[in-house]
Amino acid sequence: MTDMDSETTTHTEPMVEEETPLLSNLDLFLFSLIVGLVVYWFMSRKKPEPLPEFKKLDTPAPTIRETSFIEKMKKMGKNIIVFYGSQTGTGEEFANRLSKDAQRYGMKGMAADPEEYDMGELSRLSEIENSLAIFCMATYGEGDPTDNAQDFYDWLQENDDENLSGLNYTVFGLGNKTYEHYNSMGKYVDKRLEELGAKRIFDLGLGDDDGNLEEDFISWREQFWPAVCEHFGVEALGDDSSIRQYELKVHTDMNMNKVYTGEIGRLKSFEVQKPPFDSKNPFLATVTVNRKLNKAGDRHFMHLELDITGSKIRYESGDHVAVFPTNESALVNKLGQILGVDLDVVISLNNLDEESNKKHPFPCPTTYRTALTHYLDITHPPRTNVLYELAQYASDPKDQENMRKMASSSPEGKALYQNWVLDANRNILAILEDMPSLRPPVDHLCELLPRLQARYYSIASSSKVHPNSIHICAVLVEYTTKTGRVNLGVATNWLKNKPVTDNGHKSTVPMYIRKSQFRLPFKATNPVIMIGPGTGIAPFMGFIQERGWLKEQGKEVGETVMYFGCRYKNEDYIYQEELEEAEKNKVLTQLHVAFSRDQEHKVYVQHLIKNNKENLWKLIHSDNAHIYVCGDARYMAKDVQTAFHDMAEELGGMTRTQATDYVKKLMTKGRYSQDVWS
């Protein structure tokens, strides 16, 4: 009753001041609200949140993946560091070989990507006793640093006050003599380090990929290590036995969702695609067109179109598209058969050096089949270090002796390697077939084979006209070797066999864009002279599309001149319809085509250039024309350049030296650009 009475009192006499309750209705409401919010806040805190896990994921990846190579070397007891600038993997391969060599001299080496470290620490290398920095530097394109050495190159250029007087160093450059700027990166690094006070302990080595890069490297290396021994007062340990870098782990009960199936970087990255896309995270582009370009003949020219819709990928005319090919399944199966291996076993190859940044030679865990299909180069003739390491597995002493001989620097050994491996184009499968006593363990073979690299193609389209599509123009590489085997180019054979749909599934190509300096002039009114025989026409298809688009926008466009060359008009005059249409629409103001074999005497693009020298000279000398050359570096690009030297000499009244300098100045000013290969 008490409760009831008090309630009644409260209601019946609300105006009596003495009886006013301690809390008014509004106060009660606000109090309840605050209590409710506090309870809600408290309860929501108690709910399991992804926060702790998020924190775990978010913790910066071991900062001990230090940018400090000095601290890492101290921690691991290393005294030799081999930096590499590598675009196709060879520079990295040579760096690994040199760091492994150090062990034979009682020293400890590590290979390092300059992109991953603070190169400003070179001045601190003297803190480590008997230390040495080796630089394996490849030159890419027109004398450029490789992508991973660009920051290091910039650092060298910008830091004039750097004191590297405590640094011992040597450089081995990787280049190709058919290119204008032969080995310029290796030469620059060697010269620049000396300018900054570093001490060169052995001469600059220059490897020529147009000759025999492997032989150049071995010859340099054979003299380099004795010089190191002399400098540091150490001796070779005489231990030439094989040194394994990775150990095999076979997974018997692995969750297949954790097994790599061909991804380049992140696991499942081909299933869940996330931009930005680059060399470590390629985009899976759908093939929408794959057609044969040539009308007849025994070669196969192809035109592919890759759909990049939704990828946020941007490109410009003149850029390169990089694609990641796979090896032919027939070759992989043959390797499995000859080695008697179950290719579908799930394995990991784990680095014996637990501190190394490179935990595996390729993404692991994976299967042997995936490794040999997606990750390893099984079609190029193996380098001598592979033969040397595999020799121990040959049961025939004669085979063992020959393999070791080929890996030596003796004239007889070099000649044997040149003749039996290189000239005969024997890949690892051919070597195993022709040497029945050689049956290495597949895991050691996988450790030794180099990585399968991306292949670059000049883009044959303009993003102004095709913003969501990238076009590729290529020709199938196919040849018969001295041993009677038919070898096919890995990438071109793979591209040729990419149907638009495959059993109802769309064909895809893992790709990314590599920016180029091969650019149309900023002013559309500048004339352009394009010289591109064969598949060298690729970037010019993009240029022509873009000039046509500019005209459609009502822009004034300068003269657009095309020099194309092929063997026969009725066989391999690729893009004939498109070129003639562009000429008809006045997008191309001049179209000159050289058919080299349609008459008794050979006619090439350089001959047509000479025939039109007056008109060309006016465009170049008076009208500020830009010249573009794309295609073969060994012969065509040199012959075309000679034609321009002749022109400047004859019509410009110059001496040969002046004419050569004139063309060089055009290159320096960005008015003579080359996109060439050998």
Automatic annotation (TrEMBL):
One of its GO terms (cellular component) is cytosol. FAD binds at R455, Y456, Y457, S458, C473, A474, V475, Y479, G489, V490, A491, T492, W677. It is an enzyme of class 1 (oxidoreductase). Its main location: endoplasmic reticulum. It is found in: Endoplasmic reticulum membrane. Residues 280-521 form the FAD-binding FR-type domain. It comes from the Eukaryota. InterPro entries: CysJ-like_FAD-binding, FAD-bd_FR_type, Flavdoxin-like, Flavodoxin/NO_synth, Flavoprot_Pyr_Nucl_cyt_Rdtase, Flavoprotein-like_sf, FNR_nucleotide-bd, NADPH_Cyt_P450_Rdtase_alpha. This is NADPH--cytochrome P450 reductase. It catalyses: 2 oxidized [cytochrome P450] + NADPH = 2 reduced [cytochrome P450] + NADP(+) + H(+). Binds 1 FMN per monomer. Residues 80-225 form the Flavodoxin-like domain. NADP(+) binds at R299, T535, S596, R597, K602, V603, Y604, V605, Q606, D639. Keywords: Endoplasmic reticulum, FAD, Flavoprotein, FMN, Membrane, NADP, Oxidoreductase, Transmembrane, Transmembrane helix. It comes from Dicentrarchus labrax. One of its GO terms (molecular function) is FMN binding. The gene is POR. The keyword Transmembrane applies. One of its GO terms (biological process) is response to hormone. This enzyme is required for electron transfer from NADP to cytochrome P450 in microsomes. It can also provide electron transfer to heme oxygenase and cytochrome B5. The chain crosses the membrane at residues 22-43. Its EC number is 1.6.2.4. PANTHER family: NADPH--CYTOCHROME P450 REDUCTASE (PTHR19384:SF17), NITRIC OXIDE SYNTHASE-RELATED (PTHR19384). FMN binds at residues 86-91, 138-141, 174-183, 209.
